[in-house]
Design goal:
By secondary structure, this protein is mainly beta. It has a domain at 27-104. Helix content is 14%, strand content 44%. Strands 1-2-3-8-9 form a 5-stranded mixed beta sheet. A 3-stranded antiparallel beta sheet has the order 4-5-10. Strands 6-7 form a two-stranded antiparallel ribbon. The chain is globular, with a radius of gyration of 14 Å. The protein starts with a strand and ends in a 10-residue tail after the last helix. Residues 114-118 have low confidence and may be disordered.
Length: 118
């Protein structure tokens, strides 16, 4: 999608994405367990023994919900995040789920989406 990405395991941030002077803080949530044809994600932050707190815009810009078993990712912005998130088969059926959710998250973050044609 044209962004440079670096690992950044600090505080609540897992990745940093950079492009054209924009920097986005990304937290990755992953699961490999499907329950009744839905993927469930807990959207809280905490490392080691610290208490897990709700993720907010203060901590990260985008949350990447990764489904490890099918190697897919759904992106959402960190403003107004629920404490948990369910991704249904309806969303998974979209072939371009990754690019559509990424571009939507970018727009909400105020980043213009001008992807280059291949």
């Amino acid at each position: 999608m044209g962004w440079s990405v670096a690992l950044a395991p600090i505080d609540h941030i897992d990745l940093v994405a950079m492009k054209d002077g924009h920097t986005l803080r990304i937290q990755v949530k992953s699961t490999s367990k499907r329950i009744k044809n839905h993927y469930h994600f807990s959207i809280k932050a905490g490392r080691g023994g610290e208490a897990r707190r709700r993720v907010s815009r203060i901590h990260v810009d985008i949350v990447a919900c990764a489904m490890i078993d099918i190697r897919r990712v759904y992106f959402m912005t960190s403003n107004r995040l629920p404490q948990s998130f369910v991704l249904s088969n309806k969303m998974l059926a979209l072939d371009d789920m990754e690019s559509v959710s990424w571009e939507t998250a970018l727009r909400v973050c105020g980043v213009e989406c001008h992807e280059e044609a291949d």
